[in-house]
From TrEMBL:
Signal peptide: none
Protein's recorded name: ATP-dependent DNA ligase family profile domain-containing protein
Domain ATP-dependent DNA ligase family profile: 69-162
Pfam families: DNA_ligase_A_M, DNA_ligase_OB_2
């Protein structure tokens, strides 16, 4: 297992970076000069915990003066055929130990000993502002798509908000709810075609209804990030904002 990094996913093909969708990501030459020419890499352009928005703005252009704030965190290699995960990690680690790239780091893996160990590591990472944990099945081969051999483990906050507007996609269907948090901040909560949301798309909660939603963290603006509709609160008269955990420095943990 390893920390789930909240950055920009980037693949290295020996010449340049490209995104999950195959779009080129143009990094300055000083940033890529130490990366291998004969080994493809899978990793994250990472600007630090809680810095997702600033990371995106930096990696959009090679001209940004802040590329020195970014690290390429490598956690796999796509072009090693049927080599198992442990073998791939060893080969990547050997390269990093021999070359010591100035703007890239090898993401170390920790063997998960038990559910208790997983929860302890999650608590430690959350206390320093991390997003969650990635769990890799031992002896697994590389797969470029979503796979049961690689799982995300994340925690969410739960809160309530008041519905103040319906955003319609047509006269019959509501595609989003405009909501107001207890602190007064307004945000949009999308509804998608799944078992839970489908009935609310046809019959959305009335204006003034208090709903429950979950989210991962707050943007700098105070709006919830990755907010998901959970349900209607029938026993609440006022919304309640989530109590966001205090992020500690690693030295304090």
């Amino acid at each position: 297992m390893s920390e789930k990094l909240d950055g920009v996913r980037a693949f290295w093909n020996g010449r340049c970076f490209y995104s999950r969708l195959g779009n080129a990501l143009y990094a300055p030459e000083f940033f890529t000069k130490d990366l291998p020419k004969d080994m493809h890499l899978d990793g994250e352009l990472f600007g630090g915990r809680g810095q997702f928005q600033s990371t995106i703005s930096i990696v959009k252009t090679s001209q940004s003066p802040k590329w020195n704030d970014i690290k390429y965190c490598v956690f796999d290699s796509p072009n090693m055929g049927k080599e198992v995960f442990e073998t791939r990690m060893q080969r990547i680690k050997e390269y990093f130990e021999n070359v010591n790239p100035s703007h890239a780091v090898f993401v170390e893996q920790t063997k998960c000993r038990s559910k208790e160990h997983l929860e302890e590591e999650m608590a430690r990472l959350l206390n320093i502002g991390a997003e969650g944990i990635m769990l890799r099945k031992p002896n697994s081969i590389y797969r470029p798509c979503r796979s049961i051999t690689l799982l995300k483990y994340k925690k969410f906050y739960y809160a309530e908000a008041v519905v103040i507007k319906h955003v319609k996609s047509n006269r019959y269907t509501c595609r989003a709810l405009k909501c107001r948090m207890a602190c007064g901040i307004q945000f949009y909560l999308g509804l998608t075609y799944n078992y839970l949301h489908s009935k609310f798309m046809r019959h959305p909660p009335k204006i003034g209804t208090i709903i429950t939603y979950k989210f991962q963290e707050l943007f700098v603006s105070g709006c919830p990030r990755f907010a998901t509709f959970v349900g209607v609160c029938k026993d609440k008269t006022e919304p309640r904002d989530a109590q966001i955990r205090q992020v500690l420095n690693e030295e304090e943990v």
